[in-house]
Amino acid sequence: TKDGHSSFMAKEIHEQPEAVRRTLSGRLGSDGAVSLGELGISDKALARIQKIVIVACGTASYGGQIAKYALERWCRIPVEVDLAHEFRYRSPLVDDRTLVIAISQSGETMDTLMAVRYAREQGATVLAICNTVGATIPREADGVLYTHAGPEVAVASTKAFLTQVTATLLLALYLAQMRGSGDPTEISAAARELAGIPGRVQSVLAGAGQIEALAASMADVTSVLFIGRHVGHPVAMEGALKLKELAYIHAEGFAAGELKHGPIALIEPGQAVVVIMPSPAASPVLHAKMMSTIQEIKARGGRVIAVGEEGDAATTADALLTVPASSPLLAPLLTAIPLQLFAASLAGAKGLDIDQPRNLAKSVTVE
Ligand code: F6R
Fold first, then answer.
1. Is the ipTM of this structure higher than 0.95?
2. Is 60 in the pocket of ligand 1 (CB under 6 A)?
3. Boundaries of each SIS domain copy (predicted)?
């Protein structure tokens, strides 16, 4: 049931603090030590890994792109992220020292399953990050890390995405702790911060009313651009995907640094641009660059909606959707939420069925 919410999607968005708590449960000690006892892949096998390839589709692939930043920084292992349907058609370099991570909410996405089969044929070790216990992808993989988000009914992925990101962060912390890689101070701080994320997710949800009002004022927009840097880039792409699939509004997500290499030609008076702000304290250089990007957009009459930390000076934006402060690699767990609310509210303002968007199925079981 919808538990008093207007849709399954609204319910699932509001379940996210609890869902993330379940992903962390029993895996993150109070001392910050991560244990993934149930993984099914030995530490010996994980210690031999020289390369990671993440395969996934859609929202799960954006989760994978976020994971790349944490895995490379903390584990010092090169990471590629491939759309599962592209993977086996490009002669990928995969061998018995490659860990292939397949991320899938349903565990039944045919494109991702075929990538898993191909990777195993090449001798890779395959780890599934999956929400559905006992699904085909985790059954065919060497090991699995379940997200335990609970059933996701709405077609658009929300709590599954947040828990996929949480699970990959746990995995990155685990590998770093086991292999002794990365900066130990940063890694233990990140582990402690992760433990407090469910409470911060809850506080972002408290801003839903402001986002609904903003969306109601935008029900007639025909195009929205989303830009971000660093992990804000995949978050921007996820925000654009949510808006396309729920509100049927043309949207594009791209790296903010690309703006001047072409897309700035799209900025005309009234063009809405959602900007995922880097943290002013944790990423001052990227924050400053994003402030000048906002100036570029404003100078051409664009309408800027910033998603940024409380107290961010980016108030040159026309609207600021706030999230609590966080370290850069954990920020997507917070900045993705206003974008989910924005897409759902805009779709609602247009009178659309957000649980069952046209032309889409919950699980894509054809290639
Ligand atoms: C978007 C969405 C899809 C799925 C994609 C992969 O909101 O839900 O993009 O993320 O189809 O599905 P799974 O995770 O089941 O493999």
1. yes
2. yes
3. 42-181, 214-357
